[in-house]
Design a protein that fits this description.
Helices cover 62% and strands 7% of the residues. An 8-stranded parallel β-barrel has the order 1-2-3-4-7-8-9-10, surrounded by 7 helices. The protein has a two-stranded antiparallel ribbon with strand order 5-6. Helix 17 (392-404) packs across helix 19 (434-443), helix 29 (662-684) runs parallel beside helix 32 and helix 31 packs parallel to helix 33 (751-780). Among the domains are: 201-289, no CATH class; 314-503, no CATH class; 575-803, no CATH class. Helix 23 (515-520) links the parallel strand 9 and strand 10. It is of the alpha/beta class.
C-alpha cells in the first residue's frame, strides 16, 4: 500500500514511465538523431510479452494472497467505522486461513492461479496502459493501429514439459480451455459495461449499412437473443451488436468445451473474427460523428482483446532436446543437420506407429498443438522452445517432428509454418556457442525457409538460472551479455529480426532484479522492438498483486523496451573503450568463476548444502507440480534444479548464488592495475553498474551471523571450513564493493531500501532462530511429528515472505 502511494506521488510529479520514455525519444527526434520514418519503422512491430510460468517459488497460497489484496485495498480507503470493521474482518479471516497447501498442486491448479492475475490485468490495468501508449506515441507522430499488439501475455503453465511428467497433451488442451473460459468470463463483464454505454439511437445519429446488415444477420442466426432486447433496442444497433457478441462468445466457449465444429455466424473461429465485430461498430461511429465514442471505451476494450486474444495468453511449449532426439532415432536412426534438412523437404513421413511410450507422448504434444491452432487460431501457441539446445541439430529435430504432425510444410505448392522454434541456451558452454548455433541454423536452407515463413523473426531464449548454478553469478551474467551481442550480429548478417526471451527468475541469483535497469543495460540492438521475459513464482504476486503495482510494472517494462528499441540502436561507447571494458570484465569473470568452482567442486559441498539449509523441506511446501530434481536424479547437486539451489541458500541467509565470487573477481581486476578502469566501468557502463547494484542488494540480504546459527546447530564440525570459506569470500566481496563504490556501507546511497531490509530483519531473526531449532528437532526424529513439521514449514513461508524471495 505504501509503495502504491509513493508511486502515485512520483507519477504525479514526473509523469508516467511511458510519457518519460516518449519525451526522451522526442528529444532525440528533435536533435535529428533519426527521422520520423525510421521511428515508425522501428515501432511498427513493437511487442512486449511477459510470460507467466509455474516455476515453484510462490510460497504463499492464493487464498492468503487474495486476502492480503483485500486488506491492501481497504487500507487505501478513507478511514471510517465501516472500513475499520471490514478491515478487522479481513485480518481475522487471514489469521484463520491455513498458510500451507494440503497437497501437491496439479498443473490446472497452477493455471487457475495465474489466470487470476490475467483476469485482473484485463479488467483493471491493460486497457488504460494501451490507451496511454497510443496517446503518448501519437504526440510524436507515431500512430498505433488498433489491431497491433504492443503488449501481450504468454504462459508456460500447461505447456512446460521439461522435467514435468504431469504435463501431457490432454493437460495442455485442458489448460487452453480453462484460459478461454476465463477470457470469456472477463470480457463479458466488460462487454456488459460497453452494452450499457452504447445507447446511440438511430433517431439521433446515423449508422453504417455494414453495421445494420451485421446486426440483421446476428438476429437471424442467434435465436438465443431475448425478444425483450430485440424489442427495446430496435433503434439502438450498437447495443444489439454488443448483445450478439456476448451470445457468440458464450457459444464459442461451449463449442470448445464440447469439441464441436465451428458454426459461422454463431461463434468465433478465432480472435480475428471477434475483432472484426468490434471494427464494424468502430467504423460506423467514425463515419457518423462518433469519434469520441469510438476512441473511448470501445477502443480500449478492442485493444485489450487484441492483447489477450480468445485464450487470454499465448502458450509456449517447452521440451528437453533429448525427447526429440529419442523420437527421431527410433524412426530415422542417427542424424545430422544435413539429413534433418532433407527430411524436412521429404514429401513422405516415416512410420510413426512403433514408437515407445515417451516418444508417443512427445509426438502427441505436436499433434495437440496442431489441433489447438486449428480450433483457436494462430495466437494460441506460437513458439516451441527446446531446452538444453547444444547444437543446431536440436532445433531442426523439433522442427522435423513438427512436420510429421502437420505443423510445418516446405512443399513447393503448400508452404507454411504454424509455429516457430526457439533454442534455449542454458549453460555457459551453450551461451559461448550461441553465435555458432544460430549461424548453423540460419545457414540451413530448410530452416531459413521456416524462419521466412514466420515473418523473418527468430526467437532465442536465454536461461539465467542454470548458467548461474553452473558458473556463478559473475560469469553467468557476463556470458549472457556477450551471447546477446553475438546473436544480434548473426541476426543482422542474415537479415532476421531477433526476439530475445529472457528466462529471468525472481532472485538475483536467477537473473532477477529491477526490470527497467535490466532492459536498459542490454547490449545495443538486442531489443529490436520485440522482447519476452518470464515472470516467475513470487515475482508474479509481487508485481501484479494490486492494479496500481501491475500498472507500474507494465509501464516500466514498456518504457524501457521503447527506449532500448529507439535510443539503443548503436554502440554507446567507442570500440577502443568497449574493448578495454571487455578485457577487464573477462578478467573479473575468470577469477570469479575460479573462486565459485573451487567452492562448488568440493566433494563435501553437497553434504554441507543439505545440512546447512532446509532444502529437503521444499517438497513438503507443495509449491508446484514439477519435481525439484531432474529425471533420473542422483543425490548430488548436478541434478538439483536451480530453484531449490537458490531456495536453500536463501533460507539460511547465505545466498551464495547471488554474490559468491564477485569479490575475487573485483580483487583480481584491481590487483592487475585496473582500479581506475573499474571506476570508469561503474560510471559509464549500464551493464556493469546494474550488475554491481544487484550484487549489492543481495549482499544486503545476506546475513552470515544468522547463517552461522544454522551451521553450528545443523552441520558436522568437519564441514565448518566450508562456511569459513564462504565467510572469507563474503568479507572480500563487501570490501571490494565498498572500495569500488566509494561508500562506507552497503546500500549507502539507497537509504529507503536499506531501512526496508533492516525493518524486515527485525521480524526475520526470531523466525530463523526458530527454524534452526525446528530443523534440528525434525532431523533428529525417527518418525516425523506432523506438528513440528508444520511449524517448520510455517517458518519457511515466513522467511520467504520477509526476504521477498523463495528461489
Amino acid at each position: 500500500v505504501d509503495r502504491v502511494k509513493v508511486l502515485s506521488k512520483q507519477q504525479h510529479a514526473g509523469g508516467t514511465w511511458i510519457s518519460q520514455a516518449v519525451t526522451n525519444i522526442e528529444k532525440s527526434l528533435a536533435n535529428n538523431e533519426f527521422t520520423i520514418e525510421e521511428l515508425r519503422k522501428w515501432l511498427s512491430n513493437f511487442s512486449v510479452r511477459p510470460v507467466f510460468t509455474a516455476h515453484p517459488t510462490e510460497a504463499a497460497r492464493r487464498s492468503v494472497l487474495s486476502k492480503l489484496t483485500t486488506i491492501s485495498e481497504l487500507l487505501d480507503q478513507p478511514e471510517n467505522s465501516i472500513r475499520n470493521s471490514r478491515l478487522a474482518e479481513a485480518v481475522d479471516l487471514l489469521w484463520q486461513t491455513d498458510e500451507l497447501r494440503l497437497g501437491q498442486p496439479e498443473p490446472l491448479d497452477e493455471a487457475v492461479n495465474s489466470l487470476y492475475y490475467l483476469d485482473e490485468l484485463f479488467e483493471f490495468t491493460v486497457p488504460d496502459i494501451l490507451d496511454q501508449f497510443k496517446n503518448e506515441l501519437k504526440r510524436i507522430g507515431v500512430d498505433v493501429p488498433i489491431t497491433s499488439r504492443p503488449l501481450s501475455f504468454g504462459t508456460w503453465i500447461g505447456g512446460d514439459r521439461d522435467g514435468n511428467p504431469n504435463i501431457t497433451a490432454d493437460v495442455t488442451k485442458s489448460a487452453i480451455l480453462l484460459q478461454n473460459a476465463h477470457f470469456t468470463r472477463t470480457i463479458i463483464h466488460l462487454l456488459d459495461e460497453l452494452r450499457q454505454a452504447l445507447s446511440v439511437s438511430t433517431k439521433l445519429a446515423g449508422v453504417s449499412q455494414q453495421l445494420l446488415d451485421s446486426v440483421s444477420q446476428d438476429l437471424e442466426l442467434l435465436p438465443e437473443i431475448e425478444e425483450r432486447f430485440r424489442r427495446i433496442n430496435i433503434e439502438e444497433p450498437y447495443r444489439l451488436k454488443a448483445t450478439a457478441i456476448r451470445h457468440k462468445l458464450l457459444i464459442t466457449q461451449a463449442r470448445h468445451r464440447g469439441a464441436l465444429p465451428h458454426a459461422p455466424g454463431r461463434d468465433y473461429k478465432d480472435t480475428a473474427e471477434l475483432l472484426s465485430d468490434f471494427t464494424i461498430m468502430r467504423d460506423s461511429l467514425l463515419q457518423h460523428n462518433g469519434e469520441l465514442i469510438a476512441g473511448g471505451l470501445l477502443e480500449r476494450l478492442t485493444r485489450a482483446i487484441t492483447a489477450f486474444g480468445l485464450t487470454h495468453a499465448t502458450m509456449d511449449i517447452r521440451e528437453h532436446s533429448d525427447a526429440h532426439r529419442s523420437l527421431l532415432e527410433q524412426v530415422i536412426g542417427d542424424f545430422n543437420l544435413t539429413l534433418l534438412g532433407k527430411e524436412l523437404t521429404n514429401s513422405k513421413n516415416p512410420d510413426l506407429t512403433k514408437l515407445d511410450d515417451p516418444a508417443k507422448k512427445t509426438l502427441a504434444t505436436f499433434v495437440a498443438i496442431n489441433d489447438l491452432i486449428k480450433r483457436f487460431g494462430p495466437e494460441v501457441i506460437e513458439t516451441y522452445i527446446i531446452s538444453m539446445t547444444k547444437s543446431a541439430d536440436d532445433v531442426l529435430a523439433a522442427a522435423l517432428i513438427g512436420k510429421y504432425a502437420g505443423l510445418i510444410s516446405l512443399a513447393e505448392n503448400n508452404k507454411f509454418a504454424q509455429i516457430g522454434f526457439a533454442p534455449l541456451l542454458e549453460t555457459v558452454a551453450e551461451l559461448r556457442s550461441a553465435d555458432l548455433i544460430l549461424e548453423n541454423l540460419l545457414n540451413n536452407p530448410q530452416y531459413r525457409e521456416i524462419v521466412r515463413l514466420r515473418g523473418d523473426i527468430q526467437e532465442v531464449m536465454l536461461g539465467y538460472s542454470d548458467s548461474n548454478k553452473d558458473a556463478g553469478i559473475t560469469t553467468s551474467q557476463w556470458e549472457i551479455h556477450k551471447a546477446q551481442r553475438k546473436l544480434r550480429d548473426v541476426a543482422i548478417k542474415h537479415g532476421v529480426k531477433l526476439r530475445l526471451f529472457h528466462g529471468r527468475g525472481g532472485s538475483v541469483g536467477r537473473g532477477g532484479g529491477p526490470t527497467y535497469d535490466a532492459l536498459i543495460a542490454l547490449p545495443w540492438g538486442s531489443i529490436d522492438g520485440q522482447i519476452k521475459m518470464t515472470e516467475q513464482g513470487e515475482v508474479i504476486s509481487d508485481k501484479y498483486g494490486l492494479p496500481a503495482l501491475a500498472k507500474e510494472n507494465l509501464e516500466l517494462t514498456i518504457a524501457a523496451s521503447l527506449e532500448a528499441t529507439v535510443l539503443n540502436r548503436k554502440p554507446r561507447q567507442s570500440s577502443n573503450a568497449l574493448s578495454s571494458w571487455d578485457s577487464c570484465m573477462d578478467l573479473i569473470s575468470d577469477a570469479a568463476f575460479k573462486a565459485y568452482r573451487n567452492l562448488v567442486d568440493q566433494p563435501d559441498l553437497p553434504t554441507y548444502f543439505y545440512q546447512s539449509t532446509p532444502v529437503e523441506q521444499l517438497g513438503n511446501l507443495f509449491l508446484g507440480s514439477r519435481p525439484s530434481r531432474r529425471p533420473d536424479a542422483t543425490a548430488g547437486l548436478s541434478s538439483l534444479r536451480a530453484i531449490p539451489w537458490v531456495f536453500g541458500w536463501t533460507q539460511s541467509r547465505q545466498i551464495v548464488p547471488g554474490w559468491y565470487g564477485v569479490g575475487s573477481g573485483l580483487k583480481a581486476a584491481r590487483e592487475a592495475g585496473n582500479e581506475k578502469l573499474l571506476k570508469e566501468l561503474l560510471n559509464n557502463w549500464h551493464f556493469f553498474r546494474t550488475f554491481i547494484s544487484n550484487v549489492e542488494m543481495t549482499i544486503a540480504k545476506t546475513d552470515l551471523e544468522i547463517a552461522q546459527r544454522y551451521v553450528q546447530a545443523l552441520v558436522e564440525p568437519k564441514l565448518y571450513p566450508i562456511f569459513e570459506e564462504i565467510k572469507r569470500e563474503f568479507e572480500l566481496t563487501v570490501a571490494e564493493l565498498l572500495a569500488l563504490t566509494s561508500k562506507s556501507e552497503i546500500l549507502g546511497n539507497q537509504p529507503i531500501l536499506a531501512r526496508t531490509l533492516a525493518v524486515r530483519d527485525t521480524y526475520l531473526a526470531p523466525l530463523q532462530l526458530l527454524q534452526v531449532s525446528l530443523l534440528k528437532q525434525v532431523r533428529a526424529q525417527s518418525a516425523p511429528d506432523p506438528l513440528l513439521t508444520r511449524a517448520l514449514l510455517l517458518t519457511i513461508n515466513g522467511v520467504a515472505a520477509g526476504l521477498r524471495n523463495t528461489g
